[in-house]
Amino acid sequence: MPETLFSDAWMNQLKDAWNNEPEVKDALAAIGFNSVITCGFKGEDKPIGVFVVENGECVRAGTYNGEDPNWDMRADRADWLKWTENGVGMAGLGLAYTMGKLKFVKGDYLSMIKDPRMAGPFVKSFGLMQRIGAV
Asked: Is the distance from CB of 64 to CB of 44 less than 8 angstroms?
């Protein structure tokens, strides 16, 4: 049975999937990507999950504990669950961003999505969410 979205266990499943996916981990390692990524629900003060990436590899994931994110993504629970169930591609993410379904509290979505070295792994990371599922 899938884990609860953004729970410690779910975030660690995502970490394992990330680190085992060369099109994400290795692609980001090639550009020296380091980042603290958080995610949660729109309208809430704090994110729920945190994902720490060093040189493309996720070195720590779990429950948010006050880390200062470089990227903080928010959406309604229903949208997150829809993306984990059905997946979402580049066009779908663009539409979600444009329509306000996917918000970036921190991080510059537009500059990231224009850089293919980052955009490809970003879209693939949503595919990883679909692989592990969520409730």
From this structure: no
Query: CB–CB of 70/33 below 8 Å?
Result: no
What pLDDT, on a 0 to 100 scale, did the predictor assign at position 2? 85
CATH of domain 8-132: 3.30.1050.10
Render pLDDT for 69-102 as a digit per residue (tens, 0 to 9). 999 999 999 999 999 999 999 999 999 999 999 9
Which residues lie closer than 8 Å to 56 by C-beta, 6 or more apart? 24, 25, 26, 27, 28, 29, 30, 31, 32, 33
- Helices 8-19 + 116-132 axis angle, to 10: 130
**Token pair of 22 as six digits:** 């060369």
pLDDT tens per residue across span 94-110? 999 999 999 999 999 99
Residue 128 has pLDDT above 90, yes or no: yes
Cβ atoms within 10 Å, residue 116: 9
